[in-house]
Specification:
alpha/beta; Methyltransferase, Cobalt-precorrin-4 Transmethylase, Domain 2; 3 domains; five-stranded parallel beta sheet; five-stranded mixed beta sheet; 10 strands
Length: 284
């Protein structure tokens, strides 16, 4: 009689974010297939789970799948986890799940933590319809083409992005998708959890001003017809860009364009806040 493959969601940061059922299944399973046995072991040690681990990652999943399916067909119960969050979402696991389906093996999902959903619900953007696209392409040309294909998409867009590419990604989002509202979340459920909201240009300025950028990012972009709602005053937006090294005149022009304000209005607001003393007509 065939066993059962359990797809187990694990914490994305805070180790307390695991269900009672997940702990029970991980203890009862014959083995736990995981991306990095060292990473998973920290979770297992926390809950005194003695089940042996088996490495299952993008470099060995093709060969490892055959072995795991054979074990399941012999009646074993096995668990599949990723380093963090819900398996298969931008993580290995599809091959073994698909093979289990084809072999008629029972599969059960244990829902739980997901960076995708955690980021989405704190973004402040519509959640009635969203499109998850995993990690953005590393190469700019491919990234831009993907964003261009989404210009008319009427759903909140959700991406993952690495810290060393987040500034480039925000540049391309601003260039292709304009002034839509963006939210980025990092270190979700951890001590230094942070969510930044604004336009891609404003968030870029905030991050660019830092000495270092750390943590994986969940990037969310408002749908095509979502109106801009920004609680940052225009003069603050200008100051933010200037503080990040943007030329003051360019900063004023950027904010004027993004907020749909006239050059004269931006000049008055910035000058009134102690900004640059320039003639309105010099803002082009």
């Amino acid at each position: 009689m065939s066993g059962c493959l359990y797809i187990v969601s694990t914490p994305i940061g805070n180790l307390e974010d695991i269900t009672y059922r997940a702990v029970r299944i991980l203890k009862e399973a014959a083995w736990i297939a995981c991306e990095d046995t060292r990473t998973t072991q920290r979770l297992l040690d926390r809950y005194d789970i003695q089940t042996r681990t088996v490495s299952y990652h993008e470099h060995n999943e093709a060969n490892r799948t055959e072995d795991l399916i054979a074990r399941l067909q012999q009646g074993e119960k096995g668990a599949l986890v990723s380093d963090a969050g819900t398996p298969l979402l931008s993580d290995p696991g599809y091959r073994v799940v698909r093979a289990a389906v084809e072999a008629g093996i029972r599969i059960e999902a244990l829902p739980g933590p997901s960076a995708l959903l955690a980021g989405l619900v704190v973004s402040g953007l519509p959640t009635d319809r969203f499109q998850f696209l995993g990690f953005l392409p590393a190469k700019q040309g491919q990234r831009v083409r993907l964003l261009e294909s989404l210009v008319d998409e009427e759903a909140t867009l959700v991406f993952y992005e690495a810290p060393h590419r987040i500034l480039e990604a925000l540049d391309d989002i601003a260039s292709v998708l304009g002034t839509r509202q963006v939210a980025i979340a990092r270190e979700l459920t951890k001590l230094y959890e942070e969510v930044l909201r604004g336009t891609a240009t404003e968030i870029h300025a905030t991050l660019a001003a830092r000495d270092a950028i750390r943590g994986e990012f969940v990037v969310m972009v408002a749908k095509a017809d979502e109106p801009v709602h920004d609680d940052m005053r225009p003069e603050e937006a200008v100051a933010l860009l200037v503080g990040a090294g943007v030329d003051r005149m360019d900063a004023m022009k950027t904010v004027a364009r993004e907020r749909g304000l006239s050059k004269r209005e931006i000049y008055k607001l910035v000058s009134g806040a102690g900004g640059p003393k320039v003639k309105p007509g010099s803002i082009h």
